[in-house]
């Protein structure tokens, strides 16, 4: 990254998605950039449809009051009280930074990072010279650009493109080409915020997951499914080993009772994801993470790696996760293991159990080597300034 101090707007999804894991996904961009000495502000736009989720009533609407309390508490606790703004298009009103202050900020912003591409770019954002789209949902976002005119028009308002699909463009990658020049990136982790606690090998293997995030997509005869489509082969996993497993399971379509009958502990996601710190505590109380990827990530050989799994690694918790092609780019075999079948899951469990403490240590080392915010963000900015 250039040595000069930049003014950076990070666009994301916290007020509309006030949950612990979602918050960390974006907070680490803001924290990391601030630690690197930049003038950074998190900015969120309500968009023009009812998208504000309230976990207390399980509804999406236009009332942002729950999310505004959530973001204020999060940013205040992290020393970022002056580093956020929310535009409520339904009320034509700004929260956090006053309207005049945030519009003055945008008048001199150098870089805009639209994380997950979930914010519209209004006039004040279009003034920014470097507008970066960070795709965290590879394969699915490219299909939308090919099939949804509005999604493509939004993408076209950016002039740099990065994706968590690190295998994009490789011969074995089946992500459809949408005409944008995607470059690889991954989740930045602010390691100082993820203290390592000693793992307990008697605790449960856990993960936090959505059964169905949205509908399955099809393109050129290929199906790109959700985690529900990846899970079938592993339904009986708790019955195949003496290990204990816990799923923090979201989505109305999730067959919680059925999975519980198969030996999975099913936990209401609103408990561990209530705040960023309950989310951290849940990870720290886990033995390790066992998790699957969206079917579309795995079948397309996208190279995607979960921002949540990166947090497990940073906490010194081993991760046993479904292969998506990520092992071409991130060291695996110790601390981080991949699988493509239930036989490989059982082998991975046995391997981690044989030397659990060493795998915990290696997990943290992988986080330092591959996800440290300074390395991830410096590489992103280096590529961006080379290309634009």
Characterization of this structure:
The chain is α/β, with parallel strands linked by helices. It has two domains: 7-190 and 373-387, Rossmann fold (3-Layer(aba) Sandwich), CATH 3.40.50; 192-370, Rossmann fold, CATH 3.40.50. The protein is 34% helix and 20% strand. The chain contains 14 helices and 18 strands. It has an eight-stranded mixed beta sheet with strand order 6-5-2-1-7-8-9-10, with helices on both faces. It has a six-stranded parallel beta sheet with strand order 15-14-11-16-17-18, with helices on both faces. The protein has a two-stranded antiparallel sheet with strand order 3-4. The longest helix is centred in the N-terminal third of the chain and has 16 residues, at 20-35. The radius of gyration is 20 Å and the shape is globular. The model has no long low-confidence stretch (mean pLDDT 96).
């Amino acid at each position: 990254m250039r040595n000069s101090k930049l003014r950076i707007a990070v666009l994301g999804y916290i007020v509309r998605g006030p949950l612990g894991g979602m918050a960390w996904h974006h907070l680490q961009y803001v924290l990391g950039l601030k630690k690197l000495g930049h003038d950074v502000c998190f900015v969120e736009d309500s968009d023009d449809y009812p998208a504000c989720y309230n976990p207390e009533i399980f509804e999406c609407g236009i009332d942002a009051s729950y999310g505004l309390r959530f973001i204020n508490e999060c940013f205040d606790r992290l020393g970022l009280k002056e580093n956020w703004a929310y535009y409520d298009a339904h009320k034509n009103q700004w929260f956090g930074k006053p309207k005049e202050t945030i519009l003055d900020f945008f008048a001199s912003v150098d870089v805009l990072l639209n994380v997950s591409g979930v914010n519209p770019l209004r006039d004040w954002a279009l003034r920014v010279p470097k507008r970066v789209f960070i795709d965290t949902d590879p394969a699915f976002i490219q299909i939308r650009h090919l099939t949804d005119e509005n999604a493509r028009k939004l993408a076209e308002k950016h002039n740099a493109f990065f994706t968590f699909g690190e295998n994009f463009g490789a011969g074995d990658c089946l992500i459809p080409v949408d005409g944008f020049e995607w470059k690889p990136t991954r989740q930045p982790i602010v390691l100082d915020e993820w203290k390592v606690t000693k793992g307990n090998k008697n605790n449960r293997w856990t993960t936090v997951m959505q059964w169905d995030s949205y509908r399955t997509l099809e393109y050129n005869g290929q199906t790109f499914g959700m985690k529900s489509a990846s899970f079938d082969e592993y339904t009986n996993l708790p019955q195949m080993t003496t290990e204990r497993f816990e799923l923090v399971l979201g989505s109305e379509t999730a067959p919680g009772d059925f999975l519980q009958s198969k030996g999975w502990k099913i936990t209401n996601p609103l408990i561990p994801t209530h705040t960023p710190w309950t989310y951290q505590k849940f990870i720290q109380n886990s033995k390790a993470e066992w998790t699957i990827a969206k079917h579309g990530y795995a079948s397309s050989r996208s190279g995607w790696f979960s921002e949540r799994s990166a947090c497990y690694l940073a906490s010194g918790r081993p991760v046993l996760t479904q292969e998506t092609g990520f092992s071409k780019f991130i060291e695996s075999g110790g601390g981080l293991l991949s699988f493509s079948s239930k036989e490989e899951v059982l082998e991975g469990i046995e391997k981690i159990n044989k030397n659990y403490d060493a795998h915990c240590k290696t997990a943290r080392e992988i986080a330092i080597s591959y996800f440290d915010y300074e390395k991830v963000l410096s590489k992103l900015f280096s590529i961006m300034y080379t290309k634009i």
